[in-house]
Amino acid sequence: MVDCRVAGKPLEHILGWTEFCGLKIAVEAGVFVPRRRTEFLVRQALDQAGGRPGEVVVDLCCGSGAVAAALLAALPDAEVHAADLEPAAVRCARRNVSAGGGFVHEGDLFAALPGALRGRVDLLVVNAPYVPTDAIGLMPPEAREHEPRLALDGGTDGLDVLRRVVVGAPSWLAPGGRLLFETSAQQAPSLVDAAARTGLIARIAVSDELAATVVVAVPLAGDPPTSDRQ
């Protein structure tokens, strides 16, 4: 184990788990390691949750399923779904989410979800890749050499996947449903504009403590999203 760490392998992959929102999350080699800043995304999602039985929660680009597992732990009466394109991530997510009663799907963004969820999602939470392609070489070697590029590379400006999410989200959200996604402070204004073009009104929430930025959006017909700087 020491030799693996000296060689640069992420500690989480060596141990096979990491801590996230107070939970022990299984993480396999080759799977994106959940970051502490993403706990802010979970907190924002819980702020937007209605807390009613049967509330439908979806974690897209779920990776290990850490966000879905944290939301399921906090909202035990919710119907929680998680989805990812990477088979290794889906395998990990099933260990972390299915055991708690959640559902895990394999596929590309919304195509992975059961059609019965269309128009019924109350909370759509997304931690998609948003690193610009040219910036991946500047990331720590633990990330660029040991995590799947698919989980990091957001395209030329980092927003390729998130734009697809914003365009597809309105048809999956329930009336008054919320879309929340992590991004960077520099990218957030562009995504707020993109949301407006698809009929979503969005606000930016920032955590100085975690250096985290989250966009919270809701269809124009719904109540404005409640989020602020923390």
Structure description:
The protein is of the alpha/beta class. The chain has a single domain, classed as 3-Layer(aba) Sandwich (Rossmann fold). It is 28% helix and 24% strand. It is globular and about 55 Å long. The chain has a 7-stranded mixed beta sheet, with helices on both faces. A two-stranded antiparallel ribbon has the order 1-2. A hairpin with a 4-residue loop joins strand 8 and strand 9.
The first-level CATH class name: Alpha Beta
User: What is the strand arrangement across the widest sheet?
Assistant: 5-4-3-6-7-9-8
Order of helical and strand elements: HHEEHEHEHEEHHEHEE
Gross morphology is globular
Number of helices: 8
The strand count comes to: 9
Q: How is the main sheet built? A: 7 strands, mixed
CATH superfamily, called what?
Answer: Vaccinia Virus protein VP39
Fraction of helical residues: 25-40%
Rg estimate, integer Å: 17 Å
Structural class: alpha/beta
CATH architecture: 3-Layer(aba) Sandwich
Features:
230 residues, alpha/beta, Rossmann fold, seven-stranded mixed sheet, two-stranded antiparallel sheet, 8 helices, globular
